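Students often ask why inverse folding is considered easier than folding. One informal answer: many sequences map to the same fold, so there is more than one right answer. In these notes we will look at a single instance of the problem. The structure comes first.
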C-alpha cells in the first residue's frame, strides 16, 4: 500500500520484500479506531478492570488457534485503546 499522508498517520515499518505469511514469531499491535478507549479505563489495585469489549478481544485472541491450526499464541496485553501480542506462525 502506498503511503498517503491524508489517510495514514505514519509510514509502515514492514519490510517491503518480506513474506509475512512465512513461519516465524510476529509482534502484533492493533489499535481501536481513532484510538478510542474501548477496552477499559478504570484502574483498581493497579490493574485495569475488564469490560465487555475487553473480554471479547481476549476471547477472540485465545480462539485464534482453533481457527488457524498453524497459529500459536504467546504473551499479549490489552490496553485501553490497543492490543499487543506475539503470534507464532508454524507452517
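Output (designed amino acids):
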Amino acid at each position: 500500500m502506498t503511503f498517503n499522508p491524508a489517510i495514514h498517520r505514519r509510514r509502515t515499518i514492514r519490510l517491503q520484500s518480506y513474506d509475512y505469511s512465512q513461519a516465524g514469531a510476529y509482534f502484533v499491535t492493533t489499535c481501536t479506531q481513532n484510538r478510542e478507549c474501548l477496552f477499559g479505563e478504570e484502574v483498581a489495585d493497579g490493574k485495569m478492570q475488564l469490560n465487555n469489549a475487553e473480554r471479547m478481544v481476549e476471547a477472540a485472541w485465545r480462539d485464534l488457534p482453533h481457527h488457524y491450526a498453524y497459529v500459536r499464541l504467546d504473551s499479549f496485553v490489552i490496553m485501553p485503546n490497543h492490543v499487543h501480542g506475539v503470534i507464532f506462525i508454524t507452517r
